[in-house]
Amino acid sequence: MKPSILNKGVIQIHIAVFLFGFAGLFGKFLSCSPLYIVFGRTFFAFIALFFYAKFVSKIKLSISSKSSGLFFILQGILLAVHWWSFFLSIQISSVAVGLVTFSTFPLFVTFMEPLFFKEKLEIKNIILAAVVFIGILFI
Q: Is 42 exposed, middle or buried (0-12, 13-18, 19+ CB in 10 A)?
């Protein structure tokens, strides 16, 4: 791999981590409720993505069927509840605790994969999940 490609990837990862951590700080120091924070995030994201899709990338915005429209609405509700609980946890505890517990999604995926995708739960994954859980208890 070329060094310039590797450097670009490392820089992109650092920017993503910075923005992710900044969202936690943003949620901690705003004096409004998590519901208003989520509404503001989704409103400005909708405006930005709409104008980008419509005028920059010329993507045709349409929903193919009623069931896919309902699916998008349910995904939006799930994401809003997720963001609300994330910002609420940060306001109740600390940014560090909120970000660490948020970053444990692989732990939950490990135990949900057998339920949704009929994959076998391996002992190695159970041991690693236990190590992660013990590490979180130290926080």
A: middle
